């Protein structure tokens, strides 16, 4: 298709997620590339890493106001309502899938307030489009009949890559992705899981001999899937599926349910669709495709070219005020949600808020409607932002917000080199360092009795210690330089941070290593709250953690190191895990037990761990299981009790520790956990089922957490 002649104004595509693991972000990246190829002036407007949704909406409104004459349309996803402050005459809502639809298929109650806001933005928009008829059909589940243009999402260029002939599941560890179907549909073929830490937890709980796992993001799909591979898509619902279309572009085959949006655009030779929830048929199709190696490259190139043409024509039609209504399949009946074992446990709105709090505390409190209301009361009237893009949006108020935002961002950006301008001439200024500061003279050598040297008694609740194994000494300079840039954060300041070389004792067990830490050194460790161990030295980790009951120990390893030790991780008492999966020198992709984020340095991961696991002035109890109730003793966990469990049966049956833990969970009616404990065991509690709660109780008791059992 030739270049399209449309006006040269900006077509702004808004990404309120900006995450490597998000489908909207993947769509935005590919859409910008394809539209520019055909002469459309497309620009992405993305949310910054630590920016709150409220600040992002205001920044978007300010940008649109200042460039209004240069912008033709602003494409915004319906989720998160980023278009709230924009004038309706330039809004194009692209439906990517409402959270309410996902909650419907998980048989959860949807957030009516959130859904009403989405519908309000859809009704305000000049144009509405979707990548599939199934998307519009899904809105009818809530009594909303919406008309709009249907055209597919853009597709990356066809890339022939030899695969490994394996069955692959790629995605986040969420119930909506159909995780509970995996054990049955892959019982014969096996599966290679590629995803985030939540998926890793699912893998540890359900892994079989023919399962494997690797950390990764959607951006890494080109490296992990190719011709001969089979991508399985057991999601409960998908409006389209960027993962599937990228896999097909790489030459892989895809199997998924027939009601998913992607099925409307692809022939069965590329997308094998199975009737919803028919697990046995899904299994048969996997086995059939494993025996089929032929891939028609020319056919795939033609399909990809057609999909991209349809997408560009669809956008061009909107820009020309001539919407193109593509075909809508006659038969598009959405199935009822699956039942029984294929559903995850039901969680309340409170549980979702707790997960948000654990995922990003800064964003949680910044988005709090109560804090925003208090801010509204005490802020001068002239500074209050109006939800309309006009003169009432005060530039000085936005500048104030941005100034605070920039302060936060600068602390998260690696500043090894800065470009400054002096008399309009760019000058390269390198960060100065103290002479010989990276010559790590302090050594923790387990070949003999160890000595940590002098450790100050001040700030012991926030004191952090780094232990570098020999393999990580070459990276110590970069890591310490990154951390020292966080001058606003006490534990990572140069004068406060402790760091040592860790060596010796590689052939000894944890008890032998523990015996080499004498009482005086254990007292020194009591002045430290966080120990970060660089390298897969699990015996050393266990020994150091056992030396002090106040220590929180975080392991930092590479992707390859994790594969070698993952079987032992379940038996090690570990407070956190950082996986160094990045290939760039200064930009390291990490996945942690606590927080998931992409494209940040390892120093950001370390900082977030310390912030989440650090002491709290008020350590409130949060409801994890059962009906919520108010009791004064749940306000602050000052008694030393970390868990309050209400049980229905006063008669205990059990012969050993594990049986008592199982009995407690099976007879539990309510469970409250102190916020600090929740942060430590978030992966067991963010989506609690019986197995994860038993595991949580076992590990918490082994770590010395006190449980108050009430009848």
UniProtKB/TrEMBL annotation:
It comes from the Bacteria. Keywords: Transferase. SUPFAM superfamilies: UDP-Glycosyltransferase/glycogen phosphorylase. GO terms for molecular function: transferase activity. This is Glycosyltransferase family 4 protein. It comes from Deefgea piscis.
């Amino acid at each position: 298709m030739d270049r399209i002649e449309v006006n040269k104004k900006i077509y702004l595509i808004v990404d309120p997620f900006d995450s490597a693991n998000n489908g909207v972000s993947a769509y935005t990246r590919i859409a910008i590339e394809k539209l520019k190829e055909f002469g459309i002036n497309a620009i992405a407007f993305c949310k910054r890493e630590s920016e709150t949704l409220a600040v992002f909406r205001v920044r978007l409104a300010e940008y649109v106001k200042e460039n209004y004459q240069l912008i033709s349309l602003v494409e915004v996803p319906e989720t998160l309502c980023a278009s709230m402050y924009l004038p309706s005459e330039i809004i194009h809502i692209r439906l990517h899938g409402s959270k309410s639809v996902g909650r419907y298929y998980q048989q959860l109650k949807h957030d009516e307030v959130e859904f009403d806001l989405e519908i309000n933005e859809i009704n305000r928009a000049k144009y509405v489009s979707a990548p599939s008829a199934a998307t519009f059909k899904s809105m009818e589940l809530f009594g909303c009949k919406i008309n709009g243009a249907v055209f597919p999402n853009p597709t990356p260029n066809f890339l022939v890559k030899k695969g490994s002939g394996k069955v692959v599941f790629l995605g986040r560890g969420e119930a909506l992705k159909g995780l509970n179907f995996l054990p049955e549909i892959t019982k014969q073929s096996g599966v290679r899981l590629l995803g985030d830490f939540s998926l890793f937890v699912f893998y540890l709980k359900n892994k079989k001999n023919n399962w494997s796992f690797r950390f990764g993001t959607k951006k890494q799909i080109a490296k992990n899937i190719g011709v001969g591979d089979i991508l399985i898509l057991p999601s409960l619902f998908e409006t389209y599926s960027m993962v599937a279309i990228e896999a097909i572009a790489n030459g892989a085959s895809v199997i998924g349910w027939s009601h998913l949006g992607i099925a409307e655009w692809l022939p069965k030779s590329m997308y094998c669709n199975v009737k919803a929830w028919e697990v046995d048929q899904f299994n048969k199709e996997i086995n059939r495709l494993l025996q089929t190696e032929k891939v028609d490259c020319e056919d795939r190139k033609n399909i990809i070219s057609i999909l991209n043409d349809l997408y560009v024509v669809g956008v061009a039609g909107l820009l020309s005020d001539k919407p193109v209504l593509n075909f809508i399949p006659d038969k598009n009946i959405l199935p009822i949600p699956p039942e029984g074992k294929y559903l995850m446990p039901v969680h309340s709105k409170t549980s979702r808020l707790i997960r948000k709090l654990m995922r990003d505390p800064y964003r949680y409190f910044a988005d709090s409607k109560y804090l925003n209301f208090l801010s509204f009361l005490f802020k001068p009237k002239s500074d209050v932002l109006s939800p309309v893009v006009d003169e009432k949006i005060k530039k000085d108020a936005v500048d104030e917000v941005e100034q605070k935002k920039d302060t936060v961002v600068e602390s998260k950006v690696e500043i090894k080199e800065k470009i400054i301008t002096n008399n309009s001439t760019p000058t390269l200024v390198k960060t100065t360092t103290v002479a010989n500061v990276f010559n790590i003279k302090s050594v923790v050598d387990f070949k003999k009795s160890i000595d940590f040297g002098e450790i100050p008694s001040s700030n012991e609740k926030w004191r952090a210690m780094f232990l570098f194994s020999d393999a990580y000494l070459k990276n110590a300079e970069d890591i310490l330089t990154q951390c020292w840039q966080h001058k606003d954060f006490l534990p990572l300041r140069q004068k406060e941070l402790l760091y040592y070389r860790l060596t010796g004792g590689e052939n000894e067990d944890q008890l032998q290593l523990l015996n080499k830490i004498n009482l005086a050194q254990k007292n020194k460790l009591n002045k430290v709250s966080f120990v970060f161990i660089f390298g897969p030295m699990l015996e050393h980790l266990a020994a150091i953690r056992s030396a002090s009951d106040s220590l929180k120990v975080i392991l930092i390893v590479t992707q390859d190191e994790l594969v070698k030790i993952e079987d032992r991780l379940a038996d090690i008492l570990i407070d956190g895990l950082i996986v160094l999966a990045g290939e760039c020198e200064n930009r390291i992709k990490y996945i942690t037990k606590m927080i998931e984020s992409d494209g940040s340095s390892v120093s950001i991961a370390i900082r977030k761990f310390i912030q989440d696991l650090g002491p709290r002035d008020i350590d409130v109890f949060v409801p994890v299981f059962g009906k919520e109730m108010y009791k004064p003793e749940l306000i602050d966990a000052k008694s030393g009790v970390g868990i309050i469990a209400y049980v229905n049966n006063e008669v205990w049956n059990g012969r050993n520790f594990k049986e008592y833990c199982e009995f407690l969970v099976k007879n539990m009616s309510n469970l409250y956990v102190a916020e600090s404990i929740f942060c430590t065991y978030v992966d067991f509690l963010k989506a609690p089922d019986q197995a994860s709660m038993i595991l949580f109780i076992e590990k918490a008791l082994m770590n010395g957490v006190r449980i108050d059992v009430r009848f």
